Amino acid sequence: MSDTPASSLLREMAASERPQERLQRLGPAALSDTELLAMLLRSGTRGHDVLSVSTHLLADAGSLAQLITWREADFCRLKGIGRVKALQLLTVTEIARRILLQQSGEAPLLDRPELIAAYMAPLTLGLEIEKVWVLCLNRKGRLIKRVEVTSGIATASLAHPREIFREAIRESAVAIACVHNHPSGDPQPSAQDMRVTRQLREAAKTVDIEFIDHVIMGRQLNDPAGIGHYSFRACGFL
């Protein structure tokens, strides 16, 4: 095993094996996750070259995917990453989030809880406040429009049914699904979640719009059921 200190990884590396040279010679697919981060960061600091900073960043996050949940403060607490680099990284993770959300071709089909959860996962990942969305659907269960209805504090944000159905009527939706997130990561419904869902169920009958589901987004690791989301329809409530 090499005894090269982490702070001199780049200095000890042959010029032809450094990330930029490998990128030019072999293309981006040949680079490791650490090397890709090094290309983005461009430089390190005294005593911590860019490869060392990238190695520590990846080790701390656990994976590239986990970086999408990080905030500016998370990046800045690592040696070698100041505010400018943190903002650069936040920009890239936001681009990644938006790419995941974009759909090509036909509007996404959202008529089942697992499809709704998969569609909303990039949008809710890492959120520290509760938000509520209404998914306005056509008669085939495909998305017409996603509307953020409310954005609250860390513990509460649920919207009144009239706010949700106002958006559905505006978009001429035949059906809707309501989605909100739990920042704690545990998607199990609270008493308030149950109460609002009952209100939405009754309001849907009044306006003749099908209420297909209310999905609560969490994280698989924090979900007692090990799923990562909760569907009122799947649990027999709707």
In short:
The chain is of the alpha+beta class.
Structure characterization notes:
With 238 residues, the chain is of the alpha+beta class. The chain has two domains: 6-100, Orthogonal Bundle (DNA polymerase, domain 1), CATH 1.10.150; 113-231, 3-Layer(aba) Sandwich (Cytidine Deaminase, domain 2). The protein has helices spanning 19-26, 33-41, 50-61, 72-76, 83-101, 113-124, 161-170, 191-207, and strands spanning 131-137, 143-151, 175-181, 210-217, 229-231. Helix 2 crosses helix 3 and helix 5 runs antiparallel to helix 6 (113-124). The longest helix has 19 residues, at 83-101. 30% of the residues are buried.
Distance between the termini: 59 Å
Treating each run of at least 4 consecutive H or I residues as one helix, how many helices? 8
The H-level CATH homologous superfamily of the largest domain, spelled out, is: Cytidine Deaminase, domain 2
Order of helices and strands: HHHHHHEEHEHEE
Class of the largest domain, according to the CATH hierarchy? Alpha Beta
Q: Count the strands?
A: 5
**How many domain units?**
2
Largest sheet: spatial strand order = 2-1-3-4-5
Uncertain ranges: 1-7
CATH fold topology of the largest domain: Cytidine Deaminase, domain 2
Question: In percent, how much strand structure appears in the residues?
Answer: 5-15%
CATH architectural name of the largest domain? 3-Layer(aba) Sandwich
Label the structural class. alpha+beta
Q: What does the largest sheet look like?
A: 5 strands, mixed
**Helix proportion:** 25-40%
Q: Cα-atom Rg, whole angstroms? A: 22 Å
Task: Provide the residue-averaged pLDDT.
Answer: 86
Shape: elongated
